[in-house]
Amino acid sequence: MSREQAAAAMERQARACADMDAALYAHLLARAAGDVRAGGPCATVIKGYEDSDADALVSIRLLGGVHALVLSGRAPELARFYPSTGGAYRAADAPACWAAFRAVVEAEHDMLRGWLRRSPQTNETGRANLLLAGLLHAVHEVGGLPVRLVELGASAGLNLRADRFRIEAAGFAWGPADSPVRLPEAWRGGAPDWLRAAAEAYPELTVVERLGCDVSPLDPGDSDGALALRAYLWPEHTARAARLAGALELAGRLPARVVAAGAADFLAGITPRPGTLTVVWHSVMRQYVPGEEWARVTAELDRLAAAGGTDAPVAHLSFEPHPREARNDFQLRARLGTGPERLLAEAHPHGLPA
Fold it and tell me: What is the pLDDT of residues 266-310, one digit of tens each?
């Protein structure tokens, strides 16, 4: 029963990979599911994780661990199929690719068992497209106050530098022209009117604080932290890898602080600050927070909203899956103070395009 549950989860993730232009991972997970059912090396590596719930993303953890081996030069036979290391995958390569993958899983059992303890963290810079749009909207609403950025589930804190990224869409651009992080074709059919108005009014933002929390923060300046971020990117998504490289470069010269803490405890220490707009944001992290803790997070957000005012406003921005429907597009929602929550946009789970 446990193996069957794990295999079925891998097959679901394989279909999701196929839907998001990741044929390599779609193939490997489909074959890994069969290997789990047969009691092969994949079954041995994930032993004890078979009954983990869907949010544990055991399939993604396994793929990330193998990708880390590829990126660090420890799996040369497999690397020739990974675009992230200059390789290429074609349908005709499927048997050889799977054989190489299975051999790596078998040979690197201990490393992969350790890797499974890591939570998946891509620190997806594409999601800054939505967060930054929401931030511009909030700044526009409050008349251009300086900003305190507060991020829940910040990972390595890369998106705490989002105001230094560049968004580009048809007839629209915002952000430094020389930014190392470019988000092209960010909006289908061009940016919406509310974003255009905010971007025109505020071609630059003043960010006075960049602070985040994560239960297991990564240091973008540390080689192990950078490897983890790169490993959880899908190897065929080379544009995402280029954005990550730019974000890591930016992080090296623009400080941000990420503390090791749960979201609720972290928020309890945040208070509105006169003369600034406090923006609390998060993207695709709600699913990793237990229901009881999320109730505390909601209470803290309500406390902040009530404590804010005209001189010390608070905004809450979220980019998360649809709360009630299983859909591919995720939602950007914004709430200013104690006002109603607004749905501003929907986008691909990785943030591009909206």
Answer: 999 999 999 999 999 999 999 889 999 999 999 999 999 999 999
Per-residue tokens: 334 = 């914004």
Is 100 strand, coil or helix? helix
Which helix (H) or strand (E) element contains residue 137?
Answer: helix 128-142
Considering the domain architecture, whether residues 65 and 188 belong to the same structural domain is answered as: no
**Residue span of the structural domain in which 195 resides:** 125-347
Is residue 354 included in any domain, yes or no?
no
Give the single-character DSSP code of 254: S
Rounded to an integer, what distance in angstroms lies between the CA atom of residue 158 and that of residue 264?
21
Strand partners, 211: 150, 257
* DSSP annotation of 167: E
Same domain, 174 and 323: yes
Confidence tier at 322 by pLDDT (50, 70, 90): confident
Q: Which of 115, 140, 171 is the last residue of a domain?
A: 115
Give strand pairing partners of 331. 320, 346
> For the whole model, what pTM was predicted?
0.93
Q: How far apart are CA 49 and CA 117, in angstroms?
A: 10
Q: What total of structural domains would you count in the chain?
A: 2
